[in-house]
Structure formats: structure tokens, C-alpha cells
Amino acid sequence: MGLKGRGTIPAPFSKMRNRIGRFFYRHPGVEGFLFALPYMALWAVFLAWPVVYGIYISLFDWDPLRGSKFVGLANYLELFREPRFWNAVVNTFKFAGMTIPLILGLGFVFALMVWGWGRKRRGIVVVQASLFFPYLLNVSIVAIVWKWLLERDVGLFQHYLNSIFPSAPVFLTEPAWALPAIAVATAWWLAGYRMLVFQAGLEEIPVELFESAEIDGARPYHKLVHLILPLIKPSLLFALVLTTISAFRTFGQVLIMTEGGPGWASEVLALYLYRVGFDYFDIGKAAASGVVLLFLILVITLLGVRILGLKSELQ
Amino acid sequence: MRKSFLWALVIGLILGVWATAEPIKLTFNTLFHEADAKAMEKIIEMFNEEYKGKIEVELIQGRWAQYYAELRLSVLAGTPPQIGICHTNKLVEMADYLTPLNASPVGDLIEMAGIDPAKYVDAAWAAGEIEGRHYLIPLDTHGWGLWYNKDIFAEVGLDPKKPPRTLAEFIDACERIKAAGYYAFHPAEDALPRKLRRAWYVFFWQMGGQLFDEDYIHATFNNPKGLLALQFLVDIFNDFGWNEPGSNGYNQFAAGKLGMLVAGNWFYGTAAKSGVNWGYAPMPNFFGTPYTWGNSHQLVIPLQPKGTPREVYLAAMEVIKFISEHSYIWTMYGGHITAYKPAAENTELLASEYWIRSGKWLNEMAQKGLVHYPINHPKGSELEHAIQAQIELAVNGVISPQEALAKAEEECNKILQGG
User: Fold this and answer.
1) What is the least distance, in Å, from the CA of B160 to any CA of chain A?
2) Which residues contact A27 (CB under 8 A, 6 or more apart)?
3) Subunit contact A170:B246, Cβ cutoff 8 A
4) Cβ neighbours of residue B399 under 8 Å, at least 6 residues apart?
5) Most Cβ neighbours (<10 Å): which of A48, B9, B266, B311?
6) What is the mean pLDDT of each run of 10 residues along chain A (315 residues)?
7) A6 in a domain, yes or no?
8) Number of A:B CB contacts under 8 A?
9) What domains does chain B contain, in order, with CATH numbers?
10) Which residues of A lie inside 8 Å of B (Cβ-Cβ)?
11) ipTM (interface pTM)
12) pTM exceeding 0.80
């Protein structure tokens, strides 16, 4: 009785509800907009506005205490003249070139393993959790652990490696090895989450397709290339965008593991930006390098989407 | 009439009680961590106890890496701490963000607080002034010295009570230790790039080298002295076989595998806990004058927002004065040598194990003017990064010392000349 009583809406409210209903019916976009509004407000304040403000201050010799001076594109020109900046750009591309395939490849292999074996084995949840676990760690912890592992005197990995190969490189102190070592640590950290993304994509593929492929005599390789890869394209796109962004923004692990060294051998753009901004306090120039980084990520991501032919998925 | 007077009296009394009961709250943001953070905690706890109900200090510590960036940003955001720390050589970079204590918006705070400059180590006090404006109250001097393993010394036939003082003695000690199968010497703590740079500074300064000309227009280290200093550093890790590139001296020493280590006074806690039978000595005289690398922590009032009450400034100065007067605790537990002369004569400090085993030697170096401060320039951080990148490459054998100095010189000149 109580429920029935609560369900009755007084006449004036009922009229209002009908009117609102009619309004949303006539303007179908408004309802969606209102649902998105709280997020959009936060996004505008904490993401869009800082980006716009960053672009704005990149045009200034920024010094709020003594007064900022408009310098146009001078910060960009100074940046482009600086060999250290270009070194950081090259290092960023090198790092992305190593880390993106490594993370996606590992994530995909893990996903295939869990998905393929998961149906047959009971303890697969433990394996899955173990593979995902590193992703739960903070970047500082990941970097410190790997730094210890690769330490010359007390590093576990370095110790066993040297006992097999006495003249093996000391990874974090040799220019040629510093970035690859950080890339491996990063892949260990991030591959678990990509595994989940790929696994979700794999679960979506109807079993019937595999059955009919088997009837047609398809081998595992054929199933992988002609069935699995085309059908997990949306997951691949998501993982690619995510990994590209994180690879180009890489900062914490480089700062902790090598401080950008030896020399500038592992100084990536985000670390360069941080130093210019917060060590040298040249905020205008740091903002300019931030804009360049943003532009790079945008171009590379869109390029990836285009190359993979995923326009339809995006739409 | 009478009734309203009584009401006013009651309200006045309540407000008065409320006003007197509410202490002035101050924030003290430091970059200390580990032993020195604990020492500062002790001092601030004592202060809060003594000034209960009047001044209350909230201590925030431990964020070393971003400290100066945070301090600047907090000033810009209008929410600075009322007390902070500044290294002496950072003053030129930070001056705009600090309150000139003798010309603050409420007057000469040094005079108002009754702080007597004569009670501080002269050089440390003098370092706090730019163009007649005094920004810093000295807290300490800290720096590098020589830590050595007495058991290894005895094992290789060296006198554990006589650590090497000259280059010849030093080379002899290193060769004996190396022959016994130990790492002989590490000149730079954990060999981070900035530590390698400091080690090179020490050798270079000992030869009488100057990093830059007086006007900071040109780098002046790419010369035979600079080269000899760098070659010596490179050889320690390579040709001499006294250690290996990329090795961590802290770990080697604490594991009992290293004969001699150059490290700061902050290594005391680790050394004491390591179980190693260690000794401490002033920096050996390698090349002429036995300079060591060092610096000085100083107390500051960051630039406060307009309209900050006079009471807040005075309370901050009260805290600073208290810290100075109790800085023997700072030395005893934090390891840094107090810059406040009366505190350095504290009997408890002079009888403490820290002072007897290592502090007195660092103090001796400071008193003799052998603690050499680093680059003091608005672009100091940028210059130091430019130098250390090349030093590290040379130590790791990637480029020659000549190349390293030439590149570092070129980069420094570009930075100095705005190229």
C-alpha cells in the first residue's frame, strides 16, 4: 500500500514531468549533454584550461613576480636551437619505439596465454593476477625496484648476469643500454593492463568463428592473423592510444632510474620539460616544450589510428 | 544602559579570551629527510612545548627533489610557508621569493627579533646578503669528508689512527687496499651524476681552480688544472683500478668492501649502523689546498602575501631564533655543523659520540675555511647539469676527459651568454 501511495504523483508535478519529457523528446541532444556536464566541467577546469593556459604562457617570458613579458614565438625558437632539446626529442622517439611494441606485444602474449589456457586450467586466475599485479604499483616503486635489480654492486639481476657473462654491460650507466633498460622496466609495469584490454577483446570473438575456421582446416597462425587480429582491432586501438600517450609522457622511471643520464643519454622530453620548468624555472620555455610534446602525441596517435585503418571504429 | 554595558563587557571578555587562546599558527617547510629531519622534529617539538598557546609550528619535511620548485610555486600561489630553508648557493636564484629580513614590510626583523649577527659564523652570515638586503639566517655547514674502514687499514698494514693526509700517503693506502682484494676508494658517495661533479670540483678547487670568471661570463675550467682533476677522477674508476664506474660507494662501504669513501656528514647514521669499524678524517690534501665540497642550510621567511600581520613575521623570527639557539641538537642528531657559535660550544654536543667520531673534523674544516661552496649563480642548476652530464660520460669511459671539458665549457658559455 505504501509503495502504491508513493507512486502517485500530484497533478502539478505530473504536468511538469510531461513538459520536461516533451522538451527532451524534441531536443534529443540536450539530455546527453546534461549527463556529460559534470564531467565536462571538471575536464574543462582541470584539463582543457591548463592546456590553453600552457599555450598562452609559452608565448611569454613568464615571471609573475617581476612581470611577464610577451615574447611571441621566441621560446619555441630558443627551444629549436637547443641541441639538448632535440636530443630529448630523439630519446623520446627511441623510447617510444622500444616501449610501445614491447608493452603491446607482451600484453597480447599474456592475453592469448590466459585466454587460451584459461578455459582448460583452474589456477589461471592466479597467473592472471600475477601478470596484472605490477600495474598496481606506483611508478616510483617500479623504478626503485628495477634500479636495485640493475645496480652494479648489489643488483640481483646484474649479479647473476655478471656471473654468467663477466663483461656484461652495467645497464644504467652505459649510454647505449640505459633507455632499453628503462623500456623493459616500463613494459613489465604496464603490460598487465594491456593484457586485460586484449583479453576483453578476445572474449568478444564468437566461439563459432573458431569452430568453423577449424572445420576449414585453419592452423593457429591463420586463426591469429585472419581471425583474432582483425576482430580485436578496437581493443588494439584503445591499447595503442593509451600506450603511445604513456610512452611519450614517460618521466618518473627515467628520473629515478638514470636522472636522464649517463650524460643526456636517457633524457626524454618530459624530463627535459620538468628540469627547464622546475629546476631552471624557465616556465615559458617549459610550456613551449609541453606544447611540442602535446603536438607530438597528437600526431603520432592519429597516425597510428590511420595506419591501423581504424577510422570506422573511432566513428 | 547598564544592561548593554554588561553585554558589551561579556562579549569583550569572550572575544579577548578567544583571541589570547588562539596561538599563531606557522608552517615550516624543509627539504630535510632521514636523520636531519628527525633532528629538526626534536627542535620544533621543544619549541611547540615551550610556546604552547602562543605559537604553533607545523613542520613539513622530506621533499628534497622538488623543494625549491614547491617553494616558488607556493609564493606565487599566495600560500607560502612562514619559515623555510635555503641553501646558501641558491640565494641568487631564490631571492625574489624570499623576504629580505632587514627590509621586510614590517621593518628590520633581525633587529626586532634581537638576533646578533656576531653570534653566527662570519662567512655563513655574510653569504645571506645581496645588495644590502639580508635574506638568510645561517643554520649549519655541511660537507664531505673521508670515511675509512679501520679493519681494512689494519689488515693491509696501515695505521688505523692515521688516515692519509697527502697524495703520496693516499696513493700508497689505495694500492695496499687494492692489493688485498678490496675496493680501495670511492670519491663520490653513490656516484650519482651530481656527486661525480662534486668530486671533480674538490680536485679542481684543491689545485686552486675557479669554475667561472668573476663576472660569470665564461667557464674557466677547461684548462690543465681542470683536465688533471678530471683525469684523476676518471682514473680512480678505470686505470688505477681503485673502483669501478657506476658503483655505489655507500653500499660498498656499508658492506665492508671499500677502504675509503668520500661522503657527507649525513652518512654518519648509515656508518654507525653498518657494523663496520670506521674512522672519519678531513678531506686529504690531494693537490695543494685540502678543500672539500660543502654547503650551508639557512633559515628563511619566504615572501609572504601582502597584508601578512606583523605578529606572524615576529613569530617566524622567534622560531628561527629558537632553532639557532638549539642548533647543537641539529648537529648532534642531524650531523650538520651548527653555524651558531654559542651552540657549537654546548657541552652536551662536545661530549656526544657524533662530535668525537666525526663532527669535530668537519667543524675543523669549516673553521679553517676549507669547505668550498658550489656555484652561486641564477642559472646555477642549469650550469651544474651541463657540467655533470659530461663528467659522468667521462667517468663511464664514453668520452675522453678532454672532450668532456670542452663540451661542458661550450654548454656553460652558451648558458651564461644566453646563446
Assistant:
1) 26
2) none
3) yes
4) B390, B393, B407
5) B266
6) 54 79 85 91 94 95 89 95 95 96 96 82 85 94 94 85 87 92 96 94 90 88 90 90 93 94 94 93 94 93 78 56
7) yes
8) 66
9) 24-139+296-345 (3.40.190.10), 144-293+377-416 (3.40.190.10)
10) 64-66, 151-154, 170, 172-175, 259, 261-264, 275, 277-281
11) 0.81
12) yes
